[in-house]
Amino acid sequence: MLTDNRRDRPNVSVVSSRQPFLNARLQGFGATIFAEMSALALKTNAVNLGQGFPDKDGPIEVVEAATEAIRNGLGNQYPPGIGVPELRNAIRDHQQRFYGLEFDPDTEILVTAGASEALAASVIALCETGDEVVTFEPWYDIYGANIAMAGATKKVVTLRPPHYAFEESEFLAALSPKTRLILLNTPHNPTGKVFSREELEFIANVAIERDLLVVTDEVYEHLVFEGEHIPIASLPGMRERTITISSGGKTFSFTGWKIGWVCSTPELTSAVRIAKQFLTYVSGGPFQYAIATGLALGDDYYETFLSDMRAKRDYLSAGLRSAGFEIFEPQGTYFVTADARSVGYEDGLELCWQLPEKVGVVAVPNVVFYDNQEEGAHLIRFAFCKSLDVLDEAVNRLQRLS
Ligand code: PMP
Ligand code: GLN
Questions:
Q1: Domain of 387: which CATH number?
Q2: From the CB of 50, is ligand 2 less than 6 Å away?
Q3: Atom 12 of ligand 1 has which residue's CA nearest to it?
Q4: For position 17, what pLDDT does the model report?
Q5: How far, in Å, is the centroid of ligand 2 from the Cα of 338?
């Protein structure tokens, strides 16, 4: 664990201090790095390429569907616990349209408060105290907290740049008789990796052989620049052991609405639903109708969304290179990782801490997403889901680094 040797440093997980009232399971978790870095951006008036949220709202049709729902009294009172039928039907159609996967909207689809609640409810519902969850590092920050809340233990398999491939032997070594589930994320935050068919087949075969469940976080499913998004549930033998999670936040650029969902078998969906109903019960009534409208948008919406984001990825990647960074170009998501050592810093946390003051840009230190901190100590993440003029300003400022 890194020590907090500077006053005013963010109190993020990696440097968090002991909390007198917090239970033992959650000791060591601090404020999320995203909130901390956004606060720092505000305080220093820096360009915020830290927290991953778009600076432009999504399609007007979706906004109108939300305002109309509110005006017409749709979802203003508690919606059904599993979500409004319009959204569950739209999720069914989406899974069918993009992946040829069939789910019964009444028994196999559950609407949640973002992918975040779907993840928490799944891990809490499926794990016994003492169970182990195998996931890849760097991991998305809430996985560790969700696993801890469930009283389970996280076992990690490291993804290493430049290609973020993993060693099959390391994956097998992470398994034990206590392993309950594999927690997958593709496209992967923060690396931008898109798991290949071969990799997913390997994971699927292990899951089948060992009779493990797979929880898969696919919130960036429509942000794949290279390769294709393959839901692991579409591989033979996997539908019956997979909980597929996604949300409307990224795909429709409404990260504040928190409309997510789970697709699985009736038995697994029912288990997750029981945990979910005691977390929020329901949420976001009118926004559920709006996201249903979003999911039904034509191919042109999805294609333009992707091509706009690709242009941003290319722009920021080139800009970072011209500022002297070695970068690992992402195949998906809206994040790009750079090596702090290429601009003279061994420690990415140190660089992220100095960047706002030195040049007026905020990034995220990837070390907070690692159990084995030496693996990610030198890596930092920039979000490119911002307008081109904002990216341009960031790139201009970063030139001053060298
Ligand atoms: N998983 C990953 C990998 C994410 O990056 C995020 C952040 N949006 C989430 C889950 C949470 O999604 P939501 O905002 O829908 O809760
Ligand atoms: N998923 C977003 C990111 O990776 C942040 C979401 C949050 O702030 N919790 O930047």
A1: 3.90.1150.10
A2: no
A3: 115
A4: 80
A5: 18
Q: Which of 216, 244, 247 has most ligand 1 atoms within 8 Å of its beta carbon, as the pocket-test mutant?
A: 247
> Which DSSP string corresponds to 220-243?
TTT-BSSS----GGGSTTTGGGEE
Question: Cβ distance 282 to 81 under 8 Å?
Answer: yes
Residue 16: which pLDDT band, with cuts at 50, 70 and 90? low
With respect to residue 1, please indicate whether it lies within any of the assigned structural domains: no
Q: Given pLDDT bands bounded at 50, 70 and 90, which one contains residue 402?
A: confident
Of 249, 264, 295, which closes a domain?
Answer: 295
> How many domains does the chain fold into?
2
Question: What is the average per-residue pLDDT within 163-177?
Answer: 97
Q: Which atom of ligand 1 is least distant from the CA of 140? A: 3
Residue 282 shares a structural domain with residue 154: yes
| pTM score above 0.85 | yes
- Centre of ligand 1 to C-alpha 269, Å, is 19
Given this model, what pLDDT does residue 4 score? 42
| Long-range contacts of the stretch 318-321 (C-beta < 8 A, 24+) | 319/391, 319/392, 319/394, 319/395, 319/398, 320/382, 320/395, 320/398
Domain boundary among 295, 320, 339: 295
Q: What is the CATH number of the domain that holds 290?
A: 3.40.640.10
> What is the span of the domain harbouring residue 344?
6-58+300-401
Residue 189 Cα to ligand 2 middle (Å): 9
Q: 367 to each of 143, 193, 264, how far by Cα in Å?
A: 15, 17, 33
Identify the helix (H) or strand (E) that includes residue 336: strand 335-339
The reply to whether 207 and 318 lie within a common domain is no
pLDDT score of 94: 98
Distance (angstroms) between ligand 1 centre and the Cα of 142 equals: 9
Do 377 and 229 lie in a common domain?
no
Residue 397 and residue 358 in one domain:
yes
